[in-house]
Design goal:
Blueprint lengths: L6 E7 L2 E7 L3 E5 L6 H17 L1 H6 L18 E6 L3 E7 L1 E2 L2 E2 L4 E6 L4 E6 L5 E6 L4 E6 L7 H8 L4 H11 L1 E5 L5 H6 L2 E2 L13 H9 L7 H12 L3 E10 L2 E8 L6 E2 L5 H14 L8 E5 L7 H17 L3 E5 L3 H4 L7 E6 L5 E5 L7 H4 L4 H6 L12 H4 L1
Parallel strand pairs: 3-18, 3-19, 12-17, 17-18
Antiparallel strand pairs: 1-2, 1-4, 4-5, 5-8, 6-7, 8-9, 9-10, 10-11, 13-15, 14-15, 15-16, 19-20
Helix pairs in contact: 7-8, 8-9
Length: 397
């Protein structure tokens, strides 16, 4: 996989006082409620939002950053989110003014291969230092719209920067799906708005339109057929979908099942059927030529344990052969047990209330148990990340 997040480092973002992880194609987070799973996922989405919408709008979706700073951080501390790829290291710094996030973020983009600082911007400033490749020196620029990240402007300033282009592609194709926020009632009642897109929107609201679009390209790729094959594996009676234009701007889907003559409208199928269909569409609708980073929060919602195992199989295929990188936050022992210990990250809070991340493969005290028991079984038994009982460093060691 070419365009992949290789490391994520976060400081002072809610309970993430100071965490750093090397990321893999599959990254599954589990642990007690409130231990920082969803918070870690949101750091990626927050930087993506800042790139797309600007810092002020992105922070407004998070109550303008009120309460976002780590509780025990110094009064003058900043939030730092650093993402790393094969070519670059990019840090975004968020300052605070009267308890709210300062709309002018700080930024630093470093080329790992060339050992150069390509972007240098201080918090609260509308000026930035851009490295000019031809001149081989930094140039001071005043940003026209300083609420947007300077990374956006650098691509126009220096169109031959492989580092900036790689980061832009990574952030442009981040998708976040929280299972509990998917608009299932709307999909069942009125369907989807018709559009040309072949990627799934944040709340899954365009799934019928996406499936209609990729169904029309079955002769040249296997996106639709892959989704249908996994649906058949998940639900033995499932046969296919019938997707129809129901109005000038609306598309609706119905289910065709084995042994039944009549179609079942989406309004009549289980939430689990639609939830799984949405997960599969998120994984495969963009095809193999787009290196997307896909985030799932509690994807096990409404799914039967067997269907959960099929979802895990689909994730493995998407990361291995479809050029996808996947992050998952879950409480499901079934889902946890489908993945290798190297892909599993435990989140816990230490005595000070900050998040501690531990890879299951590095937990020395349970390696012998993993030879006989699935990770999910150990999670249920309280041998890993128990809901009751605080994390202690002595226990981790």
């Amino acid at each position: 996989m070419g365009n992949q997040l290789t490391r994520l480092q976060v400081k002072n973002f809610r309970s993430l006082a100071d965490v750093s992880i090397e990321t893999r194609p599959i990254n599954v987070l589990f642990g007690p409620n409130g231990s920082g799973k969803s918070t870690l996922l949101d750091t990626i989405w927050f930087v993506r939002d800042c790139t797309k919408r600007g810092v002020d709008e992105a922070s407004s979706y998070r109550s303008h950053g009120i309460g976002m700073l780590w509780d025990k951080a110094d009064q003058e501390a900043n939030i730092s989110i650093k993402i790393e790829t094969e070519l670059a290291e990019y840090e975004v710094l968020f300052g605070f003014s009267e308890g709210r996030i300062e709309p002018f973020a700080g930024e630093a983009l470093h080329s790992k291969l060339r050992k150069l600082c390509l972007i240098d911007r201080k918090i609260g400033s509308d000026k930035v230092e851009f490295y000019h490749n031809s001149m081989e020196q930094s140039v001071s620029i005043t940003l026209k719209d300083a609420e947007k990240l300077a990374l956006n402007w650098y691509l126009a300033f220096e169109d031959e920067s492989d580092e900036a282009a790689e980061l832009d592609r990574l952030l442009h194709f981040v998708h976040f799906y929280h299972a509990r926020k998917i608009l299932l009632p709307t999909l069942k009642r009125t369907g989807s708005e018709s559009s040309y897109h072949t990627y799934l929107w944040e709340y899954g609201q365009n799934v019928w339109s996406v499936l209609r679009n990729i169904h029309g390209k079955r002769a040249i790729d296997n996106r639709y057929d892959t989704i249908i094959d996994f649906m058949r594996k998940s639900f033995p009676n499932f046969r296919d979908l019938v997707i129809e234009q129901t109005g000038p701007n609306s598309v609706y889907g119905s289910f065709l099942e084995n042994g039944r003559q009549d179609l079942i409208q989406a309004s009549g199928v289980s939430d689990g059927h639609l939830q799984m269909l949405i997960h599969l569409t998120a994984l495969f609708s963009e095809g193999t030529d787009r290196d997307s980073l896909i985030v799932f929060d509690e994807p096990e919602t409404s799914l039967h344990p067997y269907t959960i195992s099929v979802f895990a199989e689909a994730v493995k295929l998407a990361t291995k052969e479809w050029n996808k990188q996947v992050f998952i936050a879950t409480h499901s022992p079934v889902l946890i047990s489908q993945f290798d210990p190297e892909d599993l990250l435990v989140t816990e809070l230490d005595e000070s209330g900050q998040t501690v991340l531990t890879r299951v493969s590095e937990m020395k005290d349970i390696q012998d148990l993993l030879e006989d028991y699935a990770t999910g079984s150990l999670y249920m038994a309280g041998a890993i990340a128990p809901q009751s009982g605080p994390y202690t460093r002595e226990k981790a060691e």
